[in-house]
Hints:
Helices cover about 40% and strands about 20% of the residues. The protein has helices at about 15-30, 45-50, 80-90, 100-110, 130-140, 150-160, 180-195, 205-220, 235-240, 280-290; strands spanning about 1-5, 30-35, 55, 70-75, 95, 115-120, 145-150, 170-175, 195-200, 225, 245-250, 265-270. It has a four-stranded parallel β-sheet with strand order 1-12-10-11, with helices on both faces. Strands 3-2-4-5 form a four-stranded parallel β-sheet, covered by helices on one side. Helix 4 runs parallel beside helix 5 and helix 6 packs parallel to helix 7.
Amino acid sequence: MKIIQSELAGFCFGVRRAVEMIYNEIEKKPGKIYTLGKIIHNDDFNQELCRKGVEIISEDMLDTIDPSDSVVILRAHGSLAEIYEKLKKRGIRYVDTTCPYVEKIQKIANSEKDEKTNIFIIGDKDHPEIKSICSFARKGVKYDNVKVFKDSKELESYSQLHNDLYNIRTILFAQTTQKIDEWKNCLKIAKKLYTNLTIFDTICKVTEKRQLDAETISKEVDLMLVIGGKDSSNTCKLAQVTSKNCLTRHIKNASEIPYDIIQPEMVVGITAGASTPDRIIQEVIQNVRSKKL
């Protein structure tokens, strides 16, 4: 069996930075450490944090925290604009691990907004990153002119029903982990219909390179194993990209290796999402290599 591993698999800059920041806090032992939601989308990593005494909490639990003996870690995906205000008001110390690429979009959304501008975002409306960006775009604006579209079909359908918006100033950007092909389709539609359009290319360059690399590998293998959390947007996108070219399985760790479909003569490709620890990637590779097929 031959294994081809993507050199771009594993932690991206933003995730690595977030992980280093939370480990620094653990080493300081400042008191009780909380993360507001999952700091990254990887259950194995988050379980490790819990074993180190870190508690994952939801936004409604902030009122129960003792400001004198606590620190709150804000997730790499970004937090709601109102969360910052609440933490400051209560005097709770916090460490913001928001990815710089996401922070850049937050600033764009906050600075470009006004009641005469449409803000169109291509992404998953239920993802923490998009919720965070929308909160900055809507902050202080009475008229809700922020729209999130999951794909080009949604954008096109909405646009056809609202042709009165074509001449209104419109800004368009994407979730950092959006599929490149889908983003390109959205650009074609937007450029064709909207006459006062400003485009911000906000897909993370690492995400773009990772997708292109995974696509290349998937054309050379019989099976692609994409490793990462099932709730990880960028990992899911990788699986979508590779599934067009070969049999693909999205697995969270070595416990989900599909031995039943792996054959000795196969060429197996391996990549991983931006929030997948290297030890999990190596464990998958070692298990696939050592398994007697």
